[in-house]
Amino acid sequence: MSKTHKTQVCIIGAGPSGLLLAQTLANAGIDSIVLDRKDRAYIEGRVRAGVLEQGSVDALIDAGVSSRLQAEGIPHGGFDLAFGGVRHRIDLEGLTGKSVTVYGQTEVTKDLFDARFGQGQSFFFNVEDVRPSDLKESKPKVHFQHEGCSITVECDYIAGCDGFHGVSRQAIPADVINTFERVYPFGWLGILVERPPVNHELIYANHERGFALASMRSATRSRYYIQCKLEDDLIDWSDDRFWGELAERLGPETAACLQTGPSFEKSIAPLRSFVTEPMRYGNLFLAGDAAHIVPPTGAKGLNLAIADIRLLSRALIEHYNSGNDSHLDTYSHTVLKRVWKVERFSWQLSNLMHQFPHHTPFEKHMQRAEFDYIASSEAASTAIAENYVGLPLE
Ligand code: RFL
Ligand code: PHB
């Protein structure tokens, strides 16, 4: 059986980018269809980001999906960088007048799904063989298989919000796309545990055994990460081994406050910097991880995705409301300018805070000197702070 559906915007991917775009367009009376190769439960269960910039919080407020975020999100006015046992607080509030909000990506996704369900929004889950076509035509199409049926969606625009491994970016001809990539020689092993956080703010630590991050989801739930080898297997990381390694990297003073317990989520993520240029081809627009990846050290991935959607939704709403395409035409250029700055920050903080297997004693001294400089200079701390709380949208 085959079926054709018509809509204004076909959104590939129901991660935070795709869901926020659908919500923002719906609020402006613009029709969309969202498809994902996974189902809602799987998408909501993916444990990832934990820190929202104020601009991201504002976007979720504007979209009308912030009641739980505003009640349960934890404002953070600073965080610690620790290097070889010395801790330096980056006073976000004092240095920039702004703070960040700790609220899990799982919760953002849940709030967005809750807002859309039951409101006549069209979702297709568990889709297969997704294939965008006619990208340069006035009515581009997305073809896919769903529950044994061949479906074609005919639309005005396609939003490629399908993450790093999606098909949207691959639908752009190789001769018009440039990609830039750096793969880091380690990963992050992360766990969730139902125990109060070791510290009331986040701690990013560089210890000679490797990076460690103490983060949280609530007053009773902690999220911890340690740098691991890319070839490490979860089977080799018992909870006991994880806690021992984390305690050592956080140092005895911090570790004295560490409340350990059984982990209920454990995963390894590789670290990568990646940028695609341009982020538009014909009537296909890329947004979020489909177009760019940052290493998680600066907590920027989800925030970048939300910033893309703020600009893309504004451009689409202008197109439909007034026929003005100027922001659609400048979308890729505007977004990429900001993306590269955020890539720079995430790369810099990753370089500073990890142990690199190839580093010579000279490079180790450079890392130490950079930390000492940040710890002794308000200007250097402010530069970190203004990036961490989020750069202006344009
Ligand atoms: P997503 O979340 O990857 O969603 C893409 C969706 O597309 C679907 N999909 C397809 N659908 C249809 N057809 C196909 N062919 C498809 N291929 C894929 C997928 O099933 C999925 O549902 O991308 P999106 O929406 O752009 O969102 C990006 C964020 O998820 C990501 O940037 C952040 O999670 C990154 N990140 C962090 N970002 C922050 O801002 N702050 C943080 O503190 C932070 N911590 C992290 C992170 C990412 C991590 N991992 C696991 C990579 C910590 C970690 C460990
Ligand atoms: C998280 O809580 O998952 C988290 C926090 C800060 C980061 C990355 C991840 O930089």
Please describe what this structure looks like.
Helix 1 packs parallel to helix 6 and helix 9 (301-322) packs antiparallel against helix 10. Helices cover 37% and strands 29% of the residues. It has a domain at 2-74 and 103-180 and 272-352: FAD/NAD(P)-binding domain (3-Layer(bba) Sandwich). A hairpin with a 2-residue loop joins strand 11 and strand 12. The strands form four sheets. An eight-stranded mixed beta sheet has the order 7-6-15-16-17-14-18-21. A six-stranded mixed beta sheet has the order 9-3-2-13-20-19, with helices on one face. The protein is an alpha/beta fold and 394 residues long. 8-demethyl-8-dimethylamino-flavin-adenine-dinucleotide (RFL) binds next to helix 1, strand 14 and helix 9.
Keywords:
eight-stranded mixed β-sheet; FAD/NAD(P)-binding domain; binds 8-demethyl-8-dimethylamino-flavin-adenine-dinucleotide; binds P-hydroxybenzoic acid; 394 residues
SSE layout:
Layout: E1 2-6, E2 9-12, H1 16-27, E3 32-35, H2 40-45, E4 51-52, H3 54-62, H4 67-72, E5 74-76, E6 79-83, E7 86-90, H5 92-96, E8 100-102, H6 105-116, E9 122-124, E10 128-133, E11 141-146, E12 149-154, E13 157-160, E14 178-193, E15 203-207, E16 210-216, E17 222-228, H7 239-250, H8 252-255, E18 263-277, E19 280-281, E20 284-286, E21 292-293, H9 301-322, H10 326-353, H11 361-376, H12 378-389
Parallel strand pairs: 1-12, 2-3, 2-13, 3-9, 6-15, 13-20
Antiparallel strand pairs: 4-8, 5-8, 6-7, 10-11, 11-12, 14-17, 14-18, 15-16, 16-17, 18-21, 19-20
Helix pairs in contact: 1-6, 1-9, 9-10, 11-12
Bound molecules: 8-demethyl-8-dimethylamino-flavin-adenine-dinucleotide and P-hydroxybenzoic acid.
Residues 12-18, 35-38, 43, 48-51, 105, 127, 130, 161-163, 165-167, 188, 190, 269, 288-289, 296, 299-303, 305 line the site of 8-demethyl-8-dimethylamino-flavin-adenine-dinucleotide (RFL).
